[in-house]
Amino acid sequence: MNRWEGLDEFVAVAETGQFSAAAERLAVSSSHVSRQIARLEECLQTRLFYRTTRKVVLTEAGQTFLQHCQRLIDAREEALRAISDLGSEPKGLLRMTCAVAYGERFIVPLVNQFMARYPLLRVEIELTNRPLDLIHEGLDLAIRLGRLQDSRLVATRLAPREMYLCASPVYLERYGRPHSLSELTHHNCLIGSTDHWAFQQDGRELSLRVQGNWRCNSGQAVLDAALRGFGLCQLPDYYVLEHLRSGALVSLLEQHRPPNTAVWALYPQQRHLSPKVRQLVDELKAGLAQLPEYRA
What is the pLDDT of residues 213-241, one digit of tens each? Predict the structure, then answer.
């Protein structure tokens, strides 16, 4: 007896509870299912089902065998899909989400570049700073920044993301340069989406609440205010590296810079990704690495 023979019939009977229902699912006769189960039990030298006139019930051995068979069948189907998808062109609908500013500046142009090569692909992008539930919202992909929270999702690192505390030379000349975290209370802090800034001290991460006379939930707006000398800012690398190199901004308290976070692609847990998601994730990772903000 072939070692795969009878496994599909066994799983179908176990999941439907009836030989006739299993036969209907597999598009074969009930007698065929019955013969395959009998041969499988004979091969294993154990009873897999208790049979009654109305239904069949798994034995203890059958319950154990079912768990292994389901994994085997899933793995077999996954292997077949993986091979068939090798040459598949991305197509159909792909729904994704990303934060507004980062999406507009980096992600959407790369997605548009990807779509130009695959005309059979349709994309819906929701740019929002509210973290959406991928499973509940039926989304295929999310681009998230910083630290991850949802353990139900699979994450692929797309790019680094490092936070910088900065100020313009004009501000520092007027108000002085902070030399410790405690001195931040004496400075005007330009607040973006949160008034809690991340740092590290003595190998520990910590969050400090800051205060200031200016607030806007836009990184670009925070950057503009910092360049004008309004106060200190804490922004990701892709906002400030250009201005740090030119001298328009000065990096501060570098010994307290928070541990490096990242830009992530997240998708629901599944062993086999569809070609459209897998190839777009690869495209985003390669595309971000080529941008001047990241090459620097």
Answer: 999 989 999 999 999 999 999 999 989 99
Residue at 228: amino acid letter: R
Decide: 227 and 250 in contact? Cβ < 8 Å.
no
- Which fold would CATH assign to domain 92-161+261-295? D-Maltodextrin-Binding Protein; domain 2 (3.40.190)
Show the tokens assigned to 247.
């001298």
Tokens standing for residue 264? 């992530």
At residue 74, the 3 state secondary structure works out as helix
Distance of CA 152 to the CA centre of its chain: 10
Query: Whole-angstrom Cα distance, residue 190 to residue 212?
Result: 6
In a 10 Å sphere around its CB, with 0-12 CB exposed, 13-18 middle and 19+ buried, how is residue 278 labelled?
Answer: middle
Nearest CA to 30 out of 44, 43, 16, 48 is that of 16
Do 92-161+261-295 and 163-256 fold alike per CATH? yes
- The 10s digit of each residue's pLDDT in 50-74 is 987 777 899 999 999 998 888 888 7
Q: How far apart are CA 235 and CA 245, in angstroms?
A: 15
CATH of 163-256, one of 3.90.1150.10, 1.25.40.10, 3.40.190.290, 3.40.50.1820: 3.40.190.290
Q: Please tell me the total number of residues recorded for the chain in this structure.
A: 296
